[in-house]
Every structure is written in C-alpha cells, then in structure tokens.
Amino acid sequence: MPEGDVQSFYRGKNVFITGGTGFVGIALVEKLLRTTEINKIYLLVRPKKGKEISSRLEEYIKNPIFSVLIEEKGSDIFNKLIAVQGDVGEENLGLSTNDRQMLIDNINIVLHSAATLDFEANLKYTVKINLQGTRRIVELCKAIKNLNVLLHVSSAYVNSHLLRVDEQLYPVPESADRVIELVENTPDEELEEKTPQILGKYLNTYTFTKALAELEVTNSITLFPSCIVRPSMIVAAWKEPIPGWTNSKNGPQGFLMGAVKGVVRRLPVDPKLVCDYIPVDVVVNGIIVGAWNAAISKPSETPIFHLTSSTYKPFRWNVVACAVDQLLHKYPLKSAVWYPTLKLLPSIFLFKLSALIFHWIPAYILDTVTMVSGGRPILRKLHTNINNSLARLEPFIFTEWFFSNKKTMELHNRLSEEDKEKFSLDIATLVWCDYFDNMAKGVRQFLHNEQPSSLEYARKKDKILLILNILVQVVVVGLIWFLFSKFTGKTLWECFLVLPITLIIFGML
C-alpha cells in the first residue's frame, strides 16, 4: 500500500509523549511504532519507589498490546523508546538539566496526555497536574528548537455544564493565574471550603482544571502550531492492535470486570440514555492525525476535535443489555466467586436497595469465608468504594451529553485513502453488540489475565455455579416463606402468596 501523508509526516521525527504509560499513552506508542517510521519516542516516566525508570520501561514493553508489533517488526523496535525521568506535577517537569536540553535539541512533536482523572482529587492536586502540568509543557515547547506541533489531549467533559457541546473553545470564568495563586496561598482546609465557589458551574476539579489547561494551549498559538482533541469515555480497542484490548478499569470495562467475577450484580444505569463511549484506537488515530493536521496547516487558532460517538453513532445500554448477560457466560472466569449476572437499575435509590441484597449480604458472607480460610477479604471494601463514589458519579451516570464531531469527520474526509485506512476517525461501521463481545473477551484476558485456553474449565465451573445459585435462591425464598409463616402464625399453605410476591420484588431489584 502506498504511504499516506500522515505517515510521511512522522517519518524520521522525534516525539515526546507525556502520559505514555497510561491507557491511551501505551496504545499511542504502539501505533506509532507499528505504522510509522518514527525516529525516536521520548517517554516522560515518573520514578517509582524502588524502581528505576529503565526497569519500568522493561516492564512496559511486556504489555500484551505489543504482541502484534513484535510479530511484525521484532523486539529491536523498542530501541526507538527513550525513557526520560520526570513528572508533570513537578517544577520544570522534574527534568534534569541534561534531559531538558536533550528534549530542546531533538524533539519535533509533543503529544501531551498526562493528567489526573480522579474526580475526587482536591483542587490543589488537580491544578498541579492538569493545569500547571500543561503550562510546564507549553513552556518547554517554547524552548524546543525544531518544534512542529503540540497536541493536547483534553476531554469532551471539560464543558459538562453544557448538554450540547461544539468543537470550539468555551470561556472559563476564572483565570489560570488567579486559580494557581489561590491554590498556592490558601491553607488546605480553607481551600477545601472555597472549592465549590471556585468551581462554579463545573462539576468537579477535573473538568475545571482541564478547561483551564485548554486555554494554556490556545494562548500559545502565535508561537507554534497546536491542536486539542477531546475524547469522551475511552473504552477498549475496536480494531487494533487487538480487538478488545484494554488495561483500563473505568466505565463498561470495569462493569464487566466485576460482573464476570460474580461480585458486581447490579449497576445504576438508565438503559435508555445515550452514553458517549469511544474506542481507544480511534482516540489514538485522532491524536496522530490531529497533530499532523495542525503541523501542516499552521492554523491561526488552535483546532479542537471531538473524539466522541453521541451525535454520530450513539450508544444506549438497552442495545446490549441482554447480550451482556449472555457474554458473562460465553466468556466466564475460572476465578469467578459466584454465578455472574448483571441487571441495570435506572435510579440510585433502586440500586442502593438492590445492592443491600445482591451486593452487601453476599460480600459479608464471602469475606467471612475468605477470612476463615486465611485469605484477604476484599468485597466489603469494594462495595464501600462503589457506594462512596456514587455521589460524584451520579451526574455522569444519569445525564445525556451530545458532542458534535462535525469537524472531526471533515478532518477524516480530507485524509488520503491510505491514511483513512491506517488512521480512521470514522466509527460508522462500529456495531456495538459485536464490539461488546470483543470487550468481554478483552476484559477476561487483559484485566483478569485468563487466557483463552482456560475457557473450557471456566465454562464447566460456570455451570456448577449456576446450580449453586439456583439452590441458594430456593433456600432464601423458602426461608422467607417459612419465617413469614412462623411470624404470622399461619400455615405455609395459607402464606403461599408470599412466594410470588417475594419473586416479584426480587425481580424488580
């Protein structure tokens, strides 16, 4: 196949990537190594206690996502990776003098995706990582000698106070300088109290600081070309390098991860609402193409592209609700603790009521068994964390957003046929049921580390768990029937209506 314009642009270039060890970052590195003739990829890597960045890089390249790359190009391809010790949350990105100079002298393209995604993080921390981290990247870009472009990975939810969002920059009431000054000069306790007032219409510190970070990028457009991409909820790979690949436990991947284990049996989800999910490989293509487009067009204003599905290929859980329950048994786990089932509940109240029966009671029982057998109980902690997160997640669970992706599709249509093939931004042919089938396989293999060879054993165990599940249900319903009879002083036959009523209530929950 002839080489496209995007591939030509990246040939021989040196790229600096922040967030390269994250979900999107590792997929981005894999795609660049596999499909372009990139010269070097410099990865900003945070040191971890007891681990040098060289050993972190050795672990990094063992990720299963690289299996296709190694098969096609051999393991020597990783010689193109250079780990650079640093941290976007530190002054000067935590770079040594020599490393900073190395980047200034060699880098052509900067792809900035590092961020904290923690919705519960306090304002001081999110400002340090999301806002000041982006400011530090922009300062580095100003010093780079042969910079072609800076691409910033933002989020479709930076404007989540709006229900319909276009691919444009929206004003932020607070200035970055004032927010940074407040964070640096206000005592922690006082800052915590003032945070809701500072955030104003923004849902949390994440969306607020990411919106301010966009302004840091757009304000530098007169100095060098830049681009912003706004993905929505990023989910498992659609097509490449491995359909269903993921290392993220967020969103539907996390739902499936807990459900197939048999520990998450209910979800607070309104199946009729549109949820905006976008596969990670489409996001990676958007980053690569967005950077190329800005570098060659040298725009006077920073272009913004939505990598989203809500207005183009909308997803609703009612499309896959029945299929998901089947997938839990099509790809069961040999490590499942109970028979998997998943029911969607359209309100937090119903979820909490149902969770009392289907999450908390089994959690106490199984954790007790685990403790007696010498294991580490985890289920109560898991459901406590889920419960605690409901308040912050409720606006995102039960709200519909519609993100226009017209400019993204225009960009896709401008690509050469070769580049459309390799770096497609078009999800028109995505079939959500087929996609979730691959996601279920991916969750089993890449999040639970269970290989396809163990499926036969897992399916046998699944049948045993089904029988046990039915027996437990019979015992529980029979016990309720018996206790009601004893409590009222009536015979079992006189209390017979308790059986269908109990089944109806359980069915609703």
Could you please describe the fold and organization of this structure?
This protein has 509 residues and is of the alpha/beta class. The protein has two domains: 308 residues, NAD(P)-binding Rossmann-like Domain (Rossmann fold), CATH 3.40.50.720; 54 residues. It contains 19 helices and 15 strands. The strands form five sheets. It has a seven-stranded parallel beta sheet with strand order 3-2-1-4-5-7-12, with helices on both faces. It has a two-stranded parallel sheet with strand order 6-15. Helix 6 crosses helix 7 and helix 13 runs antiparallel to helix 14. The chain is globular. The model has no long low-confidence stretch (mean pLDDT 90).
List keywords for this structure.
2 domains; alpha/beta; 11% strand; Rossmann fold; two-stranded parallel sheet; 51% helix; globular; 509 residues
Tell me briefly what this model is.
One of its GO terms (molecular function) is alcohol-forming very long-chain fatty acyl-CoA reductase activity. The protein has 509 residues and is of the alpha/beta class.
CATH class of the largest domain: Alpha Beta
Strand-residue proportion? 5-15%
Name the CATH superfamily classification of the largest domain.
NAD(P)-binding Rossmann-like Domain
Helix content: 40-55%
The domain count comes to 2
User: Taking all residues together, what is the mean pLDDT?
Assistant: 90
Largest sheet: 7 strands, parallel
**Could you give the order of strands across the largest sheet?**
3-2-1-4-5-7-12
User: What is the number of helical segments per DSSP (H or I, 4+ residues)?
Assistant: 19
Distance between the termini: 55 Å
